[in-house]
Design a protein that fits this description.
Blueprint lengths: L1 E9 L19 E10 L2 E7 L5 H4 L4 E3 L3 E5 L1 E3 L12 H7 L4 H6 L3 H11 L2 H17 L2 E7 L6 H17 L4 E8 L10 H18 L5 E6 L6 H13 L3 E6 L7 H7 L4 E4 L5 H8 L4 E4 L1 H7 L6 H6 L4 E3 L13 H10 L5 H8 L1 H5 L18 E6 L5 H4 L6 E6 L2 E3 L2
Parallel strand pairs: 1-4, 1-5, 6-7, 7-8, 8-9, 9-10, 10-11, 11-12, 12-13
Antiparallel strand pairs: 1-2, 2-3, 5-14, 14-15, 15-16
Helix pairs in contact: 5-6, 6-7, 7-8, 13-14
The structure holds zinc ion.
Length: 413
Amino acid sequence: MLITNIKGLVGLHPKDKSVLRGSELDSLPTLENAWLLIENGLIKDFGKMDSIPSQISNRSSQISAEGRYIFPSWCDSHTHIVFAAPREEEFAMKIQGKSYEEIAAAGGGILNSASKLQKASEDELFESASVRLNQMILQGTGAVEIKSGYGLTAESEIKMLRVIRRLKDQFPVPIKATFLAAHAYPAEFKNNHQGYIDLIINEMLPQIAAEKLADYIDVFCEKRFFSIEETDQVLKAGAKYGLKPKVHANQLSVSGAVEVSVQNKAVSVDHLEERNEETIQTLRNADTIVTLLPSCSFYLGIPFADAKSFIKADLPVALATDYNPGSTPSGNMNFVVSLGCIKMKMVPEQAINAATLNGAAAMELSDDYGSITIGKKANLFITKPMPSIAYLPYSFGETQIETVILNGEIYNG
Ligand SMILES: [Zn+2]
């Protein structure tokens, strides 16, 4: 496939640049008036239209992208898209001012999702998650991480992870699976936290490892959820099976979650709506990626993470959706990029880099995804005619994506 007359080919990072830290996020290398050649699902070559070699310009399979930009696909490194039912009944409670913690305390929240998921069949879960994933892909996402965590029993956590594996097998996007049994304490373990942790460590982890169902391990490290010590236990147990941590940290408070995650060599710490100087100091000495989830802040009405302070401290910042039924019922990365700009004051270049190459890095996929680079997978999207790159996040709520290409083929859903 040859794409010609591209107004701007966006995100041309060199092959050896696997993650962007601090001020590196400011630069989004772009080639204007370009062509792009895709072969065997990979980016084969690109250049300027005025110097296109004749043996390339004579090719028959051509798309003209006049007036249009090509972006690398969004890389959404934090989602919970396997769930049994939406939770719009909590929507009104939220509007009336009930906090996330109050809704959880009233028996809503994660436990509500868990009881519905436990009753749903693997096929039902696969069908509904497929609809969500398809929608996300049509909105430009070309790599995704998906967590368990609404099972909360060995049987149901494994059921969720098997659904994620089926999604991996059936969709043309790379998917990373994260084991998140430590998402909430089931009611029967409310007063016996160690009993549930023992269940995770002694029953769930060995089965998950035997079936190779997970790539990462996650813990919701927060007051009333998992303490620092409990988080540490779960992460260390996961490490024995080769599962690296990706941790829900500092969503509602500065809890020490970042510190325990970094000590356990987390690939990413996610949320960080709350932070202090110590948080930043801890992260400065680590390779851990800071994954921010602005559509969760938007939906819950909690503070937005201070992206600028992380970037100023030379940290690698990624953006992801957190798509889940309770706090972020949206998998739209275009909106996340808009919020990164509008609410977190990232400039468009920073937000786009955070949602592409750094998102890929937060899934350890940046060797093959996250930028327009020769040799990487041809996962990208062609926009509608647009006046500039900034127009994409500027025109929030309106899709600018016209054509999605995965592995070098047009994806129609
Ligand atoms: Zn989450």
